[in-house]
Design a protein that fits this description.
With 447 residues, the chain is of the alpha+beta class. The protein is built from 16 helices and eleven strands. It has helices at residues 67-74, 86-93, 118-130, 136-155, 166-171, 175-178, 185-189, 193-203, 219-230, 280-294, 300-308, 344-360, 364-383, 385-399, 404-413, 417-427, and strands at residues 26-29, 35-40, 46-53, 97-102, 107-114, 209-215, 253-259, 266-272, 312-319, 333-340, 433-440. Mean pLDDT is 94; it is low at 5-13.
């Protein structure tokens, strides 16, 4: 990360110095290109071992939608030395937990274990980095599992996939940014073991990954264990990550979906935001503008839409596909979501009026409120061992190092009301947004 800029204080009383996470961090790189981040913390006899691979939904080619997520499932089906289910048995038998998830930019695997099982966690992640165990049986099994996950989480659930699946399809134009990361059934069913082997060979090289070990550890002995388990994994070829940038919309884009299970209509309004790496300070100002609009009952839109005009029952929003504002690269969506009882048009008119007001002026006290709230949320995240490990991995891979973890409170405190107002006016324009409406009830004529 670049150093924090020295900017003038905002008008009014100077903002007090905000607390920052105080966690020592060590960074190393192995000879095979694997980046390693160690974060010792003696507060509890527990460790988190996390591997983040630089491959996600956006890396999927046409015809292979959902493959990154499917492959995440396959990585639990067996590895270089372990049969199916053995990974889970070893972790749970040692009092630990494990899981994984896929995002637009990354696939993450992790274990949290008692400190006595640290080496086990390192062995498990290294073993599946060496090789994944593939067969027609395991592939068919996990295709069925993912299809059932889609049925449960999207097709048969109120507001399923809203807005994270449907909103990108409206706002973006390129396949990589717009397609459904869960994938279509047709694409999933056409996947082969050769596809999976090729995917592993291309994206699961050590140089395409970050491993974080956080918790009750000594740096040098832990580094020796990391070297023992990961150091002799072949380097492989690291794929060049393409740019997924695309132009801003030149006109508002709208779409409508019918949801038979939804009790109320809803709307997601999506805006593009600044590049979170190359334009970091403007990005922070934009994040704070979102929170001025939607964070908590004191926010502009909660007061206007819910409390005063009673156009909506709930309003919220965030930046990033899953609210992971510091874990994604450009392009990133900021989304405002409302569940409403009246018409959509009056709600959008009120929303636009509030956006216009924020773009004109942000009060010192409301900026102070959202800055403090952001710092408090950041500190809570850093207090949790697994959340801290995941943040460190994302900062290393996306932002070039974990330093932002400690710097973020100061960087947030440096943002001025004028910068927040300017960001709101620049990025939340009506003619470059997407509006996705959920119509409650089945489509007319549907059976």
């Amino acid at each position: 990360m670049p150093p924090a800029p020295k900017r003038g204080a905002a008008a009014g009383a100077p903002r007090r110095r905000l607390p920052a996470p105080d966690v020592p961090v060590e960074r190393r790189t192995l000879g095979n290109g694997l980046k390693v981040v160690l974060a010792p913390d003696r507060t509890a006899p527990s460790v988190a071992v996390l591997a983040r691979y630089d491959v996600g939904f956006r890396s999927e080619p046409e015809g292979r939608t959902g493959f990154a997520h499917l492959f995440e499932h396959l990585m639990f089906e067996g590895s270089a030395s372990l049969e199916k289910l053995r990974h889970a048995q070893l972790v749970q038998g040692n009092g630990g937990t494990f899981n994984g998830h896929t995002t637009p930019d990354a696939t993450v695997y992790f274990e949290q274990l008692p400190v006595s099982a640290l080496e086990l966690g390192l062995f498990l992640e290294a073993d599946r980095m060496r090789a994944v165990r593939l067969s027609e049986e395991t592939l068919a099994n996990q295709i069925a599992v993912v299809k059932e996950e889609i049925r449960v989480n999207v097709l048969n659930r109120p507001y399923g996939g809203f807005p994270w699946i449907r909103l990108p399809e409206v706002l973006y134009r390129s396949f990589n940014n717009a397609h459904d990361g869960y994938g279509s059934f047709a694409d999933l069913e056409s996947a082969t073991t050769d596809d999976a082997a090729s995917f592993f060979s291309r994206y699961y090289a050590p140089g395409n990954a970050v491993v974080v070990v956080a918790g009750d550890l000594d740096v040098e002995p832990t580094m020796a264990l990391v070297e023992r388990h990961f150091g002799d994994i072949p380097k492989g070829r690291v794929p060049r990550r393409p740019s997924f940038a695309e132009p801003l919309p030149e006109a508002e884009r709208r779409a409508q979906v019918h949801d038979a299970a939804a009790p109320l209509p809803a709307v997601a309004v999506g805006y593009r935001v600044p590049d979170p790496v190359k334009a970091f300070d403007e990005y922070l100002a934009t994040l704070l503008a979102i929170d001025v609009l939607v964070d908590g009952t004191a926010s502009r839109l909660a007061r206007r839409l819910v409390q005063t005009d009673r156009l909506a029952t709930h309003v919220g929003g965030y930046a990033g596909t899953f609210g992971d504002a510091f874990a994604q690269r450009d392009p990133v969506i900021a989304q405002i979501v409302a569940y409403f009882t009246g018409g959509l048009d009056p709600l959008l008119v009120a929303l636009d009026e509030e956006v216009g007001d924020v773009a004109t002026k942000v009060a010192d006290d409301e900026l102070e409120r959202v800055v403090v709230a952001n710092v408090a949320a950041h500190l809570r995240r850093c207090d949790d061992l697994l959340s801290r490990a995941e943040l460190l991995a994302a900062l290393e891979q996306v932002h070039g190092g974990p330093g932002l973890m400690a710097e973020l409170p100061e960087r947030l405190a440096a943002v001025t009301p004028d910068e927040v107002a300017a960001a709101c006016g620049r990025w939340f324009a009506t003619d470059q947004r997407a509006v996705l409406e959920v119509v409650a009830g089945a489509r007319p004529g549907a059976t």
